[in-house]
Amino acid sequence: MSFPYLIQGKNIVVVINNTPHTVTSSHISYEKVKEAIRTGDWETVQNIIEPKKVILEYGAGKISIQGDKMFWKDTEFHNTLSNRIISMFQEGFPIEPMVAFMENLMSNPSKRAVDELYTFLEKGNLPITPDGYFLAYKKVRKDYLDIHSGTMDNSVGKTVEMERNTVDDNANNTCSTGLHFCSLAYLDHFGGSDSRVLVLKINPRDVVSIPADYNATKGRACRYEVIDEIGGAVEEAFVAPVQMGQADGATADVIRIAVEAAVKAALAAHAAQSIDATE
Amino acid sequence: MILNTAPQDQAVLSNVGEIGEFRIRNSAKAFNILSSGLYANKVKAIVRELSCNAVDSHAAAGKHETPFDVHLPNQLEPWFSIRDYGTGLSHEQVTQIYTTYFESTKTASNEFIGALGLGSKSPFSYTDNFTVTAIQNGVKGVYTAFINDVGVPSIAMMGSEATTEPAGVEVKFAVTDRYDFDKFRTEARNVYRFFKLQPVVSGYNDFKIDVPEYEKMDIVPNVHQYKSAHGQTIAIMGNIAYPVQFPDSAIKEMGPLANLLRCGLEMHFGIGELDFQASREGLSYIPQTIDSIKAKLEELNGALTGLLKTEADAVENLWERALFLAKRKDNTLWTAAVQKYAVDADLPTYDVNRYGGTKTFKVGIEELAKDCNIVIRAFHRYRGNKSCSNTKSSMDYSDQKNATGHYDTWAYWSINVDLSHHFVINNLKTGAGERAKYHYRESTMDVSSRTVYVLEPVDRTKPMKTDEFFKQIHNPPAEQQVQASALLEKPRASSGIGRNVSILALQERNHGGYYRAKEMVWRDAGKLDQFDAKTTFFYLPLSGFAVQTTTGHSFTATELNTWIKESGVSGFGNITIYGVRKTDIEAIKLQKNWINIEEHVTKVLSKISEKEVMGLVMSALDKHHFTNYNSNIVEQVDPKSPFSVYNTKFKGHSKVRHNEHALRMLTTRYAKGTTFDVNAVITKFEAETKAIYARYPLLKDIYSAQSADIAEYINLIDAKKGI
Q1: Are B238 and B49 in contact (CB under 8 A)?
Q2: Model confidence pLDDT, tens digit, residues B256-289
Q3: Residues 139-178 of B with CB under 8 A from A
Q4: ipTM here
């Protein structure tokens, strides 16, 4: 099996079943199509050439598409999550973390908190975890006590929580009661140079509000788990849309290893298919 | 669309050498210019050109009512495609016609928008490759058009097979840049806005075409005016909108008709009526284009003039008609029509050369007097200003000196056609000027300014020929002609007395918000006849501002006012002093309710009661502590004791708050010859008080002691000194 194709610059034209498909770098399967054509994996080409079909398949029945919009059950996906799903697909992650994340998110009792969280995730570009949580940063004192009051222990491994209804849910009260977390951009605004930067694992269900100041880069929750402390460059802590491993102090490496493993598995699968095809 | 490309005249050559034709080199540069360089707005060009091809193809297939399909690029499906259901293309058509620049099947008919054979290549202005899927007669061919290694457009067949899909063509290409997704949406909106039949748009859920709002549709067939009735006029030909931007020279030639181009018109033309730029981004202003548009504008203007004529002719009065036109002229759409109507109708009250539009008549003063027995006086008043100022007539001077070495002059009234003017015709036996001014001063202004022309007879024994005058200025409407007898009459005062008596009032000067001693000043209080005839007023005769007193003393009105206010005498009440000038004194004396303040003060002081005097005395002696009757002390001492006698005199009296100096000033001036001399009483009591303190030397030191102790001290002294 092979299909007529043309590759020119970033554009690929493949004709499958006498129907032309135009693929370019903005196409969600661009890299994969290019690679599959290079390796002659025509079945993969056929499977991944139609983005809608790909996403529907990837979404395993949880995601639907109407026109140019993606839906989670009946709720339209916020842009930031559509992008997240696409990049998860592109980087070879399974859909399950997103499914778990959506289920957690949808169990958040506050619609406003959910809407604000979209903005936070979009601005912060923070990873989600396989069990549907997201990761965020927090700065603490040298002794792991919180900077503001110095009373809460945020040692790695601790779960910190307070009653949800005691957390200020008004985004316009910019500095108020609650367990605070932030994205990278906020870190410089708070705490001294001798403070520690921690990685928090937060259930989207537990987010109460994202204060309106600092361009939606900090948030208040009623519960989080401290899973790691960042030793090196903070910017390099998170590199993938889904954080596979945790709490071993070498987060970036874990991701890299996980991605490499996924790619290897994909290549192996392609190789097997090629053999099938030749047979 | 049929193109007219042949020269108007054939070249006739004779005795020439070798003739060579120009050629176009089949090069990358040429292709690039034709497919990319042509378009300023490339995305719009692609949407427009491919859509027009789709429309043409539907037209060729007779499917005028079938919409074509458009797919706009989005994140999930980043491609643009247009699929029509027209005639489709055969393999030969794709490889021969479709790919040949300037090859077009549509130049034989004006049923088609296309003609140049360039539009189908427009995707090359955005991308290096696009696919063409052509379905015709049950065969589906898939082609990829691309720019080859040397920059020359090429086409590759990617497949062909039998199909049951409906005939037609799909052109499709990938959109690499996400930021361009929005451009495609925007341009699709701009382009499809003018399509008679909207395509079926997919790929963007919220795609909506802005439907233009019209002020007036089909002013003449196929000419509409947008709601925002100013701005660009556009010409629409074959679903495509072209801005109408005439070259300056053409605008000049058109005269007032050019105004219509600024009225936000939408003009529809049949295919072939206008010539356009190869890019279709604008019109090509060859004579044919200009003539077509001009013809349409003339048709429009003719229709507008017709409408205007019906409306204007219905306005009978020529002044009113001129003003109707002047007003209508302000709307750019009607400017040319108004001009045309005024010229055609030769309207005497309208001046096409004047910016304001209405005519100004010049009426010679001498001629008016001679021919009509009329002399005009004029004044004007502005809203918000009560005064009426005289308006002057104008004067023209001759260019040349006359025989006597002087310049001839000609005096005239310049009367402009204006609905705010009024003409007052004096039908009274007296002059009407003052009455007219009074009338217009007193009446409310419904216009921002008004000029009033008062027509009076030069020779009062003869009638004015007003009809003749009004005929000269083409008859201002009847409501602008006013008989002097109908004007408000200036009321005459009931009697001469008091009419011109000016009254001043002594009032506090404003102290401007910060502390300052309150000064009294004379202010104009109006005329005597404005004062109520039943209320009593008090006046002080003045000479200049100096008080004219009968007392022989010299003092100011302010001083007198202070004395009256502070004297503590209750009979004065709250008095305002009015000043009356020497010349008006006789008039004021005749008014029963006007009382000279000096007489009033004298009268009040003469009637002062004993009780009031004692109160004043007590107050005057206030520094002594035993002017209040103290029964506790009196009861404990001998009734014949000098203290007891003294103190008992004050029994039943209480102090009156007053300024002793003020009282003294008044009494010395006005209490002479009265029955009760307050000053004498005060002096007497002062002496008595002194005597008491002399007899009881410690009394002033023990005033705060118990009554019994004081009584004991008095008794001791009385016992020692004897009573």
Answers
A1: no
A2: 788 888 888 999 999 889 998 888 899 999 888 9
A3: 140, 142, 144, 146-147, 156, 158-161, 163, 172-178
A4: 0.74
